[in-house]
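S.,

Sequence below, as promised.
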Amino acid sequence: MEFFNLHTHKSTIQPNVIEIVNQYPQEFDATIPYYSIGIHPWFIVEEQIESDLLIIESKLNEANCLAVGECGLDKRTEIPMELQQMVFEKQLLLAQQYQKPVVIHCVAAFQEVIALKKKLNISVPMLIHGFSKKTQVAKQLVDTGFYISFGKYLLLNTELEVVFRSVPNNRFFLETDTVEEGIEAVYELAAKYKGISVKEMQQLVNGNFLEVFKIEL
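The prediction came back faster than expected:
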């Protein structure tokens, strides 16, 4: 595997890229090679939570379902936090039951996400996608067992260089999320920030992939 894209909303199907494409339960596309599936906190519909969870659970035994998510907590959306937490908890418990990593959307709710990990005793890998916060938040997440994924904001905000460099090499992933740039551009910038070659960056990410997902692709 030359490049691994932890989180994207657009399947590009390139021979040298493994990408986890974000899928929503009611819009599932069986043609996507590898995917995560979850209820995003923005798109919680109370009347279909149970049916969404049943669809998610039905996919978790499939080999090409690599993770639960993206799911999580967002204090800047209108969905009530109590409802968000309930839906997030249910997905975390499914991930734990089926031993799948979790791709997490978190906005202004890092302490709550950390608290839920501890409360539910979640031992599967939890990955914060699209990280854009300061070094001390990154350190707290790493210290409590999270992985951190960088992409869109790494490309857009040069101040994130210091944050990215502070994250241990065995605790990060790279992604594109919704940007037009390909994953190769993210690898190039990440390698530059870490002071290593793109090939060395590929080896680092491949090692992290094997550690988290326990499979060789």
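The chain has a mean pLDDT of 97.

Coffee later?
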